[in-house]
Write a structure and sequence with these properties.
- The protein is α/β, with parallel strands linked by helices and 318 residues long.
- Helices cover 60% and strands 8% of the residues.
- The protein has a five-stranded mixed beta sheet, sandwiched between helices.
- α12 runs antiparallel to α13.
- The radius of gyration is 26 Å and the shape is elongated.
Length: 318
């Protein structure tokens, strides 16, 4: 439980709610229902084991905060997540109703454990333990199959390490969703390129062999597209984008727009991941000041590259 004032509101409520839900309890010393609600909230904060933080605002002393939230009756509770109010209630609810309210919004214990596993996977990956990271992410998905961030990272690592069958099996359920999820479609396009390179007759061609066909016929789109897939398999994604763009510029609808779809997929895979929300987000200080560290500079360069190719595609399609 934290006592909130105008001075610590931004840090203890707005910023804190980026990483853990914060339930703000507006109360006053003269409020009878507040006195009955307060101990129940404190009990639930302990019972929920860190799944939310209870922040108490004395409305008499912090009238500016009460006014900002439009508080007209006490007690009033407002739940903030990711820096924004998402729900609230007025009056002294019984414990059962309070649990219903919290359970509607708070992540489950399994989801929190899965998130912890995913975070440990990231740390193992940074330490160079790829197989350990894969195992952690598999455990995270087992605990919380709905964790798409962990699923994406897991499939991506499986592809990078050549576990194509497991990657395809893990990816398959996401491809039936309506609407489709772009980042999982992107992984599917990557797998298709790797499968082509591994199984197709042209998969082991040299780039010179493709270039000879293209030099003889600039509109040999089969050669251009096959070359792009070989480049993708080799990790030469920028060169692959250039080849795909050549097809799009000459024939937007060729191959049921497979070049465009593959181009978009590569951009999705090349886009740097957004930093985790909160004061510890990569590239920012606790006060939100941008840090020009090496990693941040690399991400900026990569983002700029992706933006450049997005513009190129837009121009080719218009």
């Amino acid at each position: 439980m934290i006592d909130i004032t105008a001075e610590n509101f931004e840090t203890e409520v707005l910023l804190a709610s980026q990483t853990v839900p914060v339930l703000v309890d507006f109360w006053a010393p003269w409020c009878g229902p507040c006195k009955s609600l307060s101990p129940i909230l404190e009990k639930l904060e302990l019972a929920y084991g860190g799944r939310f933080v209870l922040a108490k605002v004395n409305s008499d002393e912090q009238q500016q905060l009460s006014s900002a939230f439009g508080i007209r009756s006490l007690p009033t509770c407002v739940l903030l997540m990711n820096g924004k109010p998402v729900d609230g209630f007025m009056g002294a609810l019984p414990e059962g109703k309070l649990r219903e309210f919290l359970d509607k919004h708070l992540p489950s214990e399994d989801a929190l454990e899965a998130e912890a596993e995913a975070q440990e996977a990231l740390e193992e990956l940074e330490a160079g333990d790829v197989e350990g990271a894969i195992e952690r992410l598999a455990q995270a998905l087992e605990k919380d199959p709905a964790n798409d961030d962990a699923r994406f990272d897991y499939i991506k690592l499986l592809i990078q390490t050549g576990h194509f069958d497991v990657a395809q099996a893990t990816l398959a359920p996401t491809l039936t969703r309506i609407p489709a999820t772009l980042r999982f479609e992107a992984l599917q396009q990557w797998l298709k390129a790797l499968e082509f390179a591994a199984t197709h007759d042209r998969g082991d061609w040299s780039l010179d062999q493709f270039d000879a066909l293209i030099a003889a016929n600039k509109r040999d789109f089969d050669a251009r597209f096959d070359k792009s897939r070989v480049l993708i398999a080799q990790g030469a994604w920028t060169q692959a984008l250039d080849e795909l763009l050549e097809i799009v510029m000459r024939d937007k609808s060729w191959g049921e727009q497979a070049p465009r779809k593959t181009f978009v997929a590569l951009l999705e895979l090349m886009t740097p991941p957004k930093p985790k929300a909160g004061p510890q987000a990569v590239g920012k200080s606790a006060g939100g000041i941008e840090l020009a560290g090496h990693a941040a500079v690399q991400e900026d360069e990569q983002s700029a590259l992706v933006s450049t190719y997005r513009r190129k595609l837009s121009m080719a399609l218009n």
